[in-house]
Amino acid sequence: MKAPLPSSAITFDLWHTLIYLGPRAEERYVQRQISLAVETLEVARPLPGAPRRSREDLAAIFQQERVRAVAEADKGHVVSLTEQLTRVARAAGRQPRPAAYLTALGKEIARTPFRMAPGAIATLRRLRSEGYRIAVVSNTVGEPGAFLRPILHRMGLDRGYEFALFSDEERWTKPAPAIFRKALRALGSRPSQALHVGDGWGDLEGARRAGYRAGIYFTGLQEYGPSYRALHAASNTKDLGADFRIQRLAELPALARKLLPVP
Fold first, then answer.
1. Quick one: average pLDDT of 231-240?
2. Where along the chain do its domains lie?
3. Pick the CATH number of 7-22+115-259 from 3.40.50.1000, 3.30.70.20, 1.10.287.3240, 3.30.559.30
């Protein structure tokens, strides 16, 4: 008996690929995360001998740690939110209370008006109807995947893919090839039979390192809020070297058929 042919698979980034916030809403969202961290630190018990810190000091410490976590993510390393908040608290001279921040963040995410990328559901349905296996591979540096799953379910997006891998639940972030390969094993595919779609360097570089047939650069939702853009400034300045680009998700099925016919 012949072994079954590997599936043709397409993995997707999440943020600014399948879901997004407009620049102003994204800026409010990032600033709200900073405010929640400051509020959590202000009510935490000071460590012995710790200096007094202003709200501006606490905000700066949180932002410095977030920049560090993003830089580590660019290397493929996970720095969990619990670890981030613990480091922030110690740098601020406060007793760590990451659970309090996560509780507040969960409520904030639940009421944030995330938007679906135009054509996302129709594109996912089209690809699946043509025989492609679909998964999401997302770096979750600032918000846990567990908080995003209800959002995706509410939008109906989770009916368009088989599963989502979130980096905070794994040992790697994009561009580490391991997170891509784990997704492909679950989809019954090989890297040479896979495409990845995303808006950033980690997407394209990760797909390249993992041996994908191609990484596809999605440019349709790149109006970032200023704080988000600054946070990812180092990644934004790297050479993407994209061989394939799409501005609308609706362009993807035709490109997928050309690059990666279904067996």
1. 76
2. 7-22+115-259, 24-110
3. 3.40.50.1000
Strand partners, 116: 19
Coil, strand, or helix at residue 213?
coil
Can you give the length of the chain in residues? 263
pLDDT, tens digit, 9 for 90 and up, residues 132-146: 999 999 999 999 999
pTM of the model: 0.95
* Residue entry with tokens 């679906």: 116
Structure tokens at 257: 């058929």
pLDDT tens by residue, 200-211? 999 999 999 999
User: Residue 246: enclosing H or E segment and its boundaries?
Assistant: strand 244-246
Continuous segment of H or E residues that includes residue 26: helix 23-42
Half-sphere exposure of 7 (CA within 13 A, CB side): 18
Tokens of 1: 């008996």
